What we know:
The protein is mainly alpha-helical. It has 20 helices and three strands. The protein has helices at 3-30, 37-56, 58-69, 76-94, 97-119, 123-144, 150-156, 164-186, 203-217, 254-271, 288-302, 306-319, 329-335, 353-369, 377-389, 415-434, 438-443, 448-457, 467-475, 482-495, and strands spanning 224-228, 234-238, 241-246. The chain has a three-stranded mixed β-sheet with strand order 1-3-2, with helices on both faces. β2 (234-238) and β3 form a beta hairpin. α8 packs parallel to α20 (482-495). The structure holds zinc ion. The site of zinc ion has 4 residues, from α10 and α11. Zinc ion binds next to α10 and α11.
Amino acid sequence: MSRIEALRQRLGEIKDIQTAVGLLHWDQEVCMPPRGADTRGRQLATLSAIAHRKFTSEVFGHALDELVAERDALSEDDRALVDVTRYDYARATCLPEEFVSEFALVRSEAYETWTRARTASDYAAFKPVLARVLDCLRRKADYLGYEDTPYDALLESHERGLTTRRVREMFSELATRQSALVERLQAAPAPPDASWVDGAWEESAQWEFTLRLLRDIGFDFDAGRQDRSVHPFTIDFATGDVRVTTRFSPDEPFSAFMGSLHEGGHALYGQGFDPADERTPLAEGISLGIHESQSRMWENMVGRSRAFWNHYTPLLAKTFPENMEGVTPEQVYRTLNRVQPSLIRVEADECTYNLHIVIRFEIEVALVEGTLSLDDLPGAWNAKVRDYLGIEVPDDARGCLQDIHWAHGSMGYFPTYALGNVYAAQLFERVLQDLPGLWDQVGRGEFTPLREWLRDHVHRVGRRKLPEELLQDVTGSGPTVEPYLNYLETKFGEVYGLTPAP
Length: 502
Ligand code: ZN
């Protein structure tokens, strides 16, 4: 067996174990009975440790070094595989095993404490363990190494190649223009009216409608499934097995519809990798930001467009005749594009969403760099919400305790949500140039051209490029906020009557 074949075999075995871990996680969220939690935790820990040990072993490291030495003689695909593996190996072996287990313990304690602290809105109860999380994150950054700020090392884990400095520049532009836009919209004379949504929306009909949406955008049900879970997510085991979950609200159907479109966008990515990359790290998303660009393009740019609801409103009226009596496509479109500053990130509209992210980013950087103390965290949070969103935070449960990420030991993760919006707009601008008939197609419920475009330009690439390279190659520019801000200002200016309709 050649060295490269041996590498592929080894990576395949590791991927098999990781896939089994993923399936156990999926089962935990979707069907496991509550008393299964204890043994499930042990099963996950055992299998993860086996995969980690296999990946970080010295023998494997030597084999990789030998492949790196003969890199120039390899085919392009093999070279890409060696490069990605080499990068992952270097990151994985930076962290001493004692540190990894210590951090895992701190995180599980943080999660337990956070659940209780959030329910009681008791930041003081969470603060001591958050201090330990922060200490671990700083040490992690030291192990991983960085040039400018320790936050760079944390960001790199989620968005390879992007620096804190660059994110800061982009976010300050987003914050300035999005805040100004929200302020203008708040003062508009005729905001969209959503009172027609009031009432009961039957869950089984909602479920059928989400399946229809997924099928229409091209989700392959022979290579995936949808289930229910408390927190919607997507997980892919192979291009032939990608699973999404959704949840339902009895008094409005759009959170389920938009949720399924969002997860569907992630899932099309997972079903769209090159089958030849199967069982290797090349069949993975480039970064969280690029992954999120796929979900947000389908959810927001397509799923909250006028053309989309011109097509689906009649079907919605057939499915929910009582709720939809006399409701026009235009009303649905305007309802889905209401803007209202609010306290909770996951419920935020498209226009205010990034402001929630900017707040978290600025606080994370200040915490990691040590310029903000944990004593001052709630005050800093509330002040930023006042500045950017113009609202008062009544308690920490609806303030700095609302998200799970810090309790999970994740910092540097939040920015990828806003980057997903930014990347989606950049890519979509290019889509509209390449597919001039796109809105007519969407208006007929015809999504194949868009899906195929994404497959060719994004999905098939796998991890062969960095986020910045992909954007550069496809759009002619690295990450830039201009397309997203133009998109928001045009769309919402029109919805709120600040600029004339097209
Ligand atoms: Zn997502």
